[in-house]
Amino acid sequence: MKSNFPLISIIVVLTVLFSSFLKNDSSEYDFKMFSSLPIMDEGRVQPVDSFSRNLLTMVSGKPTIINSDNEKIHANEWLLDLITGKPQSFDTPFIRITNKDLLASLKLEPRKGSYRYSYNEIVPEIPTLEKVVRIAQMKDERDRDLYDRESIKLASKLTILQRTLISFEDPRLLPPDQLFPTVQGYMKLEEKSIPLVIPPKKDEQWRPMMSSLVAAHPVMQEVAKENDLKVSPYALRWGSILISYASDNAKVFNDSLTGYLLSLEKNSSDQLKNIKIERLFNQLNIFVKAAWLYLIVFLTSCVGWILRKEKLIRFSASLMTITAIPHTLALIIRSFLSGYPPVTNLYSSAIFIGWGAVLMGILMEYGFKKKGQGFGSIVGGIVGSISLLIAYFLAGDGDTLHQLQAVLDTRFWLATHVITITLGYMATFIAGALGIFYILSGVFSKRMNEQATTDVDRFIYGVTCFALLLSFVGTVLGGLWADDSWGRFWGWDPKENGALLIVTWGAIMLHARWGKIIKIRGFAVMAVFGNIVTAWSWFGVNQLSVGLHSYGFTDSAGRWLTIFCLSQIFICIVGLIPKKYWRSESLIQTS
What is the pTM of this model? Predict the structure, then answer.
């Protein structure tokens, strides 16, 4: 049975990964082909599949919605309904609003569970929303309350929808009174600020569809000449695709898609070569599926460890190892698609931390004879799973493969400082997870015997040393990057202070241990508190919205960060319970 564990793990992983391909698409429209069309948005060429997923996730919170017929609609179909002006697209609830005060201002009733509303439900109160946003704008960013932030967020969602709709209209022909209100009044819609769907030929640039299509209309010849609008055969193809879909003609729709893609293949540019890879990457959805597989690893290894089932522990280690393979390949593909090293934003840091945690768990299981005992699978599984789930929620803030700001677009420093400091985060979280495992097992079970206690303590100590080294080197590299970019090595920026806190806390832990101020139990408690220090440096400083390192993702993590910190404080308190109340008898002698 033991020799079959890798084979069983491979079957489980492949079944989960390719489960999305087993679903039968009963629609007569070829949405799969439509999802492969190229589009340019915010400086990045991507498949329609990526654009529609990102757009719907930003406004709705997830890449699918439920229509009025209680059917699940994927982002690609929803986008087609939206840009062709089908009534159901504006009547279907897909805009997420959770703030009750904002709902009251818009005269909407709270909907528990979904908190999603249709565009037509919001339209009557757009003037009210515009007034609220203008008042919020007059306040300093740090003085805005939750109501102000949520109002601006809703206005931003409406702006995003406007950008999408306007890409299929000519922005120079659209009257200003048809624009959605935005965070900064009415946005100036230029071709570079909206999604572009007409790919270039030779030395041309990407263009919006209608500015290319309108030139072919006899009535608009004079307007086209004045605005230097040129007709494009790609625009004619797009027009045929949308008209056939709007008129419910599936055959013409599919034929138009086929003709368009054949035309692209004949005149394809280098910018279009990654479209098919990215669409397949989206469909596989490896990171989300890996998160659930790692959760299975954690649960089975916990059961195996508590019940002393060696086979379950071995299976968990095997499943974690096999799952790490597609996780690694997904990181490589993602770097290839973006053109950057694997860590560029909070989303990518989360998937990278999960990957590093799993690799460290594998090392703990297989790198030390008779010392893994399932510890590596337990901590690698839970840290890997939680990190990837965090990444899933962070993806709701937009395209995770977006082009970087100029100050960050330095591949050398991204490949050195950012990766090193992120691995430092990972190691401190692993040490903290081992501390949690030690405390909970010691307090609530008798499984933490003398040998297990010694092994866990050694792991915590070794990982803490590794974390301190990475964090220190990463912090120094960050200072060198700052000196290169801003002309100063250290400026007491919140992010810099957070990195220094991690280094300082690691040093305090080791000095307290070396000075025999604390023993095994105290070292584990300090490792758990290290989770709070690291989480603050990773996420907390972004909540301040100040400093040179505050790059986005500042609104969604605050509540969960608070809950996480409180949970870690609770575990620290549990760890300080007098030893006589711990169920593990060995702790009386070893702590």
Answer: 0.87
Question: How many CA atoms lie within 13 Å of 130's alpha carbon, on the beta-carbon side?
Answer: 12
∠ CA 573-428-494, rounded to 5°: 95
Residues 6+ apart with CB under 8 A from 193: 163, 187
- 257 near 30, Cβ under 8 Å? yes
- Do the bridges between strand 38-41 and strand 116-117 make them parallel or antiparallel, or are there none, so unpaired? unpaired
Q: Among candidates 190, 180, 171, 91, which has minimal Cα distance to 133?
A: 180
- Both tokens of residue 339? 């053109």
Label residue 98 exposed, middle or buried (CB < 10 Å: 0-12, 13-18, 19+). Answer: middle
Cα–Cα distance, 90 to 65 (Å, whole number): 13
Region of poorest pLDDT, from 221-230, 349-358, 416-425, 470-479: 221-230
pLDDT at 61: 85
Three-class SS state of 117: strand
10: left (phi over 0), alpha (psi -120 to 50) or beta: alpha
Closest of 481, 497, 340, 489 to residue 407, by C-alpha: 481
Assigned token pair, 507? 């040093």
Tokens of 96: 């997420």
Q: How many CA atoms lie within 13 A of 151 on its CB side?
A: 25
Give the total residue count for the chain: 591
Q: What is the pLDDT of residue 553?
A: 43
Query: Helices 310-338 & 346-366, crossing angle to 10 degrees?
Result: 140
Which pLDDT band holds residue 352 (cuts at 50, 70, 90)?
A: very high
3-state secondary structure of 111: coil
| CA torsion angle 112 116 122 127 (round to 10) | 80
SS3 364: helix
Tell me the DSSP string of 209-230. Answer: HHHHHGGGSGGGHHHHHHTT--
Cβ neighbours of 413 (radius 10 Å): 19
The pLDDT score that the predictor gives to residue 370 is: 57
